[in-house]
Amino acid sequence: MDGTSQSQPQPPEQTPTSLSPSAQLDLAITLALHNWPVLSLAVQSSWGGPTSADKRDWLCAAIAELFTDRPDTDAGDLEEVLLQVMNDEFDVVVDDESAGDVADRIIDLKGKIDKGDLEMVNKLWEDWKQREGKASSVGLFKRVETNDEDQETDEDEEEDGEDEDVEMEDAPATRPPREVIEPEVDEDGFTKVVGRRKR
């Protein structure tokens, strides 16, 4: 033996260019949401419960579907969706204007993809690969490809006359409404401060 190890053949380099346009948009949305610090912290801290990561994936798919159902969706509409999902699913009130920044970025990415300009998506993808490592990047890429295939299957089923309401099964279960706790006031007129329960 000469001491040199033989390297395993590497799979071909994956790039957004190899995806269909709808999958390119899915990837762009996914990367934009994964780069949103507030959402990343919510997922890492499981503020949305044990399915926090699944809720983020669901949000990515929901935004892509929003563009399909309502092509005129703008950054303002998208910001409202992001704020509502963060509040409803992760119990987080986002007041740092970052939701608006993420919405603007997604709208900008969509506009570029619609024109066939993948420079920004490629840059986000390269940054993601460097930061997260190859294994994580391949997993993310595969998930986007799989979602794209599932979407094509869903479209075929709809054309066959299937009921469209079936798609609602993909949405994460919503929590029951929270019980409102009335503040306790002692005889001196002071309001008792009650800490929030840890999940």
From TrEMBL:
Disordered: annotated span: 1-21, 139-199
Superkingdom of origin organism: Eukaryota
Biased composition range(s): Acidic residues: 147-170
Entry keyword annotation includes 4Fe-4S: no
UniProt-listed Pfam families: WGG (PF10273)
InterPro entries tied to this protein: Pre-rRNA_process_TSR2 (IPR019398)
Protein family per UniProt: Belongs to the TSR2 family.
Stated name of the protein: Pre-rRNA processing protein
Origin species: Uncinocarpus reesii (strain UAMH 1704)
High-level lineage: Eukaryota, Fungi, Dikarya, Ascomycota, Pezizomycotina
